[in-house]
């Protein structure tokens, strides 16, 4: 809340306190008992009409903002699925490449074995197969030996052909998977661009909403002032009428007035890191204060700047889209940012901007939630992973380990 907002709120509360005093049980009975007024003090029709119109417009724009937030959340969920698909396809590509490498090694060995046998045959004068045939004691044995030689050669040829066929199939499969990944990467870029456009639209609507909210507050203050003035005028008229009546009847009348007042009062263990940079980030997490509610990314930026790593701006969903690439817990390291691009737990800000924190080790994620909090990774994912899902990575692409 801004200082101006605090001032307006304080004024509103002061007016309401005065009104409450004027419309207390005793005063209200007196006021409503006056023959000249059969109803309570009111603001002017012009002010009331303006306030109603401003409130209706405010509600309309708020509904528009909520609609944008819901659309953004749905798109962020689709984007999360796309990221999961990319990760899955990449895993298939890696598995296929491993099979290709295995078949290449097998083919190389088969060819090497065949080459060694041919070389050995030549070194011995090329008589190995001929000696085998000439050593046959009968025609039947000669036929059997010849058939055996043919089988050996055919077996080698078939094995090599099988390996080549499998390798070709795997190459084709890898090409197809890479094409799928390229399509998914393109889809991810499109979704990210759409989310950025929606963020820009949200900022425009939020600016309009803020202006309307200020208008409504000012009109409410004006309405309350008019009601207070009318109530004070009625009270003064009542007292004057009572004094006149007492004077005319030559009686003495004493009456008390009720008045009221009011006041308003606005209402970790550190993980040892593997490197100096990681430890510096962890230390900065514990020493960097909160910049305020809804400024989670600003806190992360301040932590990395205070740790001497560098300056990396943007909001939580910017950091998520640019640097958070993995949901594999085995890949999570101390000093990585942990973020989502949209979640439903904190209303419109969470739906549109997401949330970001820093992993400090020991299964703990620290983040700014208005105050600096420490949550277990499971708790963080359970709360902030309801929309786009939670991922992690090195902020700015700077590997600290």
Can you summarize this structure?
The protein is mainly alpha-helical.
What structural class is derived from the secondary structure elements? mainly alpha
Shape: elongated
Estimate the strand proportion.
Answer: 5-15%
Mean pLDDT: 74
- What is the number of strand segments? 5
Give the end-to-end Cα distance, rounded to a whole number of Å. Answer: 40 Å
Strand order of the largest sheet: 4-3-2-1-5
State Rg: 40 Å
Q: Biggest β-sheet: count, sense, barrel? A: 5 strands, antiparallel
Query: Helicity range of the residues?
Result: 55-70%
Features:
10 helices, 401 residues, elongated, 67% helix, disordered N terminus, mainly alpha
How would you describe this protein?
This protein has 401 residues and is mainly alpha-helical. It has 10 helices and 5 strands. It has helices at residues 3-22, 25-32, 45-123, 128-134, 139-248, 276-287, 296-306, 316-323, 348-353, 377-384; strands at residues 337-340, 355-361, 364-368, 372-376, 391-393. The chain has a 5-stranded antiparallel beta sheet, with helices on both faces. β2 (355-361) and β3 (364-368) form a beta hairpin. It is elongated and about 160 Å long.
List the SSEs and their pairings:
Blueprint: H1 3-22, H2 25-32, H3 45-123, H4 128-134, H5 139-248, H6 276-287, H7 296-306, H8 316-323, E1 337-340, H9 348-353, E2 355-361, E3 364-368, E4 372-376, H10 377-384, E5 391-393
Antiparallel strand pairs: 1-2, 1-5, 2-3, 3-4
Helix pairs in contact: 1-5, 3-5, 4-5, 6-7
């Amino acid at each position: 809340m801004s200082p101006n907002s605090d001032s307006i709120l304080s004024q509103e509360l002061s007016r309401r306190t005065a009104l409450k005093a004027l419309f207390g049980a005793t005063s209200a009975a007196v006021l409503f008992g006056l023959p000249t007024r059969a109803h309570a003090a009111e603001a002017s029709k012009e002010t009331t009409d303006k306030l109603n119109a401003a409130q209706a417009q405010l509600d309309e724009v708020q509904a528009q903002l909520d609609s944008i937030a819901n659309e953004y959340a749905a798109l962020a969920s689709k984007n999360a699925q796309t990221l999961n698909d990319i990760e899955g396809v990449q895993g298939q590509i890696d598995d296929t490449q491993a099979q290709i490498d295995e078949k290449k090694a097998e083919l190389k060995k088969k060819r090497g074995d065949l080459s060694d046998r041919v070389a050995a045959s030549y070194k011995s004068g090329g008589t190995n197969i001929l000696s085998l045939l000439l050593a046959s004691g009968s025609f039947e044995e000669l036929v059997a030996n010849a058939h055996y030689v043919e089988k050996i050669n055919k077996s080698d040829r078939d094995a090599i052909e099988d390996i080549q066929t499998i390798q070709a199939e795997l190459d084709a499969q890898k090409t197809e998977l890479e094409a799928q990944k390229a399509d998914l990467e393109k889809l991810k870029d499109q979704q990210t661009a759409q989310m950025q456009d929606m963020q820009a639209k949200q900022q425009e609507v939020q600016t309009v909403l803020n202006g309307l909210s200020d208008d409504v507050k000012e009109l409410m203050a004006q309405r309350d002032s008019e009601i207070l003035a009318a109530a004070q005028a009625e009270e003064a008229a009542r007292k004057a009428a009572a004094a006149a009546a007492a004077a005319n009847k030559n009686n003495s009348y004493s009456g008390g007035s009720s008045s009221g007042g009011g006041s308003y009062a606005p209402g970790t263990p550190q993980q040892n890191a593997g490197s100096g940079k990681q430890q510096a980030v962890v230390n900065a997490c514990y020493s960097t204060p909160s910049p305020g509610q809804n400024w989670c990314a600003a806190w992360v930026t301040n932590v990395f700047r205070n740790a001497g790593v560098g300056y990396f701006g943007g909001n939580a969903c910017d950091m998520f889209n640019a640097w958070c690439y993995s949901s594999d817990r085995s890949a999570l390291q101390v000093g990585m940012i942990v973020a989502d691009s949209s979640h439903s737990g904190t209303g419109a800000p969470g739906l549109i901007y997401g949330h970001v924190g820093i992993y400090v080790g020991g299964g703990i994620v620290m983040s700014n939630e208005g105050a600096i909090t420490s949550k277990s990774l499971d708790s963080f994912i359970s709360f902030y992973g309801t929309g786009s899902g939670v991922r992690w990575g090195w902020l700015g692409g700077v590997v600290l380990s």
